[in-house]
Amino acid sequence: MVTKEFTPVLSRIFGSRARTKLVAVLVERRGAWLTAAELCDLADVSQSGFHRDHKSVLLDFGVVEQRETGAETGTQASPKYRLADTEQAEYVTKLHYALQSQLEDSGALLEGNVREFVE
User: Source organism's superkingdom (predicted)?
Assistant: First the structure.
């Protein structure tokens, strides 16, 4: 599923289209650890924007978790991110797949008309 299809609806929930795309990538790759570069490339979001505007919000909300890599060997490496194993992340995953299953049948959802979609 292309993450841009979820942008109109979920950006209202997450507060930005970029944050929505980041979360969608993490849901679709649940369990995989991604560097910021990998995550941002897949989501088509700038790394500077990720670090400046989105990372702390997603970490604080408990949707994303961060792992410092290289700590075991004492080397410096980039941190990696994945969808957290939290209740919030589980709700996001359920919402993602519920929207995915309804997406093809709802012009209202594609147009970002959340009220019409809910009714």
Answer: Archaea
* CA distances from residue 9 to 48, 84, 109, 117 in whole angstroms, order as listed: 24, 22, 7, 10
Residue count of the chain, please give it. Answer: 119
Q: Furthest-apart CA pair in the chain: how many Å?
A: 55
Q: Which of 36, 51, 42 is nearest to 24 (CA)?
A: 42
pLDDT along the chain (119 residues), means of 10: 52 77 92 95 94 92 88 70 95 83 59 53
Q: Is the pTM of this model over 0.85?
A: no
Look up residue 87 and give its two tokens: 């209740």
Provide φ and ψ at 107, rounded to 5°. Answer: -65, -35
Sign of CA dihedral 41, 13, 100, 114: negative
The partner residues of 82 in beta bridges, in order of sequence, read 65
Measured in degrees and rounded to the nearest 5, phi and psi for residue 80 equal: -120, 155
The answer to whether the CB of 83 falls within 8 A of the CB of 62 is no
* Amino acid at residue number 20: T
